[in-house]
Design brief:
This protein is of the alpha/beta class. The protein is built from six helices and three strands; from the N terminus they run ααααβαβαβ. A three-stranded parallel sheet has the order 1-2-3, covered by helices on one side.
Length: 196
């Protein structure tokens, strides 16, 4: 996070050492202290939001722990998330220690599934490894679709979105077959897709 020239120099130095870097497509410095200048509108919004104690275990990426029962602390931690680093590794370890064994990723890229696998590698001494559920889409089929869609209906995506989901499914299947993780993909109806 910083000006273009400084970050480009750091990126070049890291790449020279063989470290993979990825530029994120954000115009604001999320999860850093530099995001503070963007926080006032969020604070005003949160002033009018009503918070309650969680009824189910909800974990906080700001602390890596469960959210506490005090609604005022839940509000503070949620606001602090914009200016705090993400404690995803700690949160995954805490969830596993608390008994979580099923991790469902709903994001578009599948990054968190691989990240959870890295974080929890070696934690399966109890004989139970985490299972990853990848949320795919019926966009992998293309169109037209029969009703109901049979299990052996071929994947012939007609969009980039469907193609990306199909690729993710193939990788998930291959990694599961090879024993890298225990995963399953679920094809859900597409609510809305972006052009491209």
């Amino acid at each position: 996070v910083g000006d273009f020239q400084s970050t480009a120099q750091v990126e070049s130095a890291l790449q020279a050492r063989g470290i993979v870097c990825e530029r994120l497509p954000f115009h604001r410095p999320y999860h850093t202290a530099r995001f503070e200048e963007f926080m006032e509108p969020l604070r005003r919004t949160f002033d009018h939001a009503e918070f309650h104690a969680p009824r189910l275990p909800i974990y906080c990426c700001t602390t890596g722990q469960r959210f506490p029962d005090d609604p005022s602390i839940v509000r503070e931690l949620t606001l602090a998330h914009g200016t705090s680093r993400v404690e995803f590794s700690r949160m995954g370890q805490t969830m596993y220690a608390d008994g979580a064994r099923l991790f469902v990723e709903t994001g578009p890229r599948g990054n968190l599934t691989a990240f959870v696998e890295d974080v929890l590698r070696g934690n399966a001494e109890d004989g139970c490894s985490p299972r990853f559920v990848f949320t795919s889409s019926i966009a992998v089929y293309g169109a037209p679709l029969p009703h109901p869609i049979p299990d052996d209906f071929p994947a012939t995506p007609r969009t980039s979105y469907g193609t990306q989901k199909a690729i993710d499914e193939l990788l998930l299947s291959d990694y599961t077959r090879r024993g890298f993780l225990d995963g399953i993909g679920i094809r859900l109806p597409t609510i809305c897709i972006r052009p491209g």
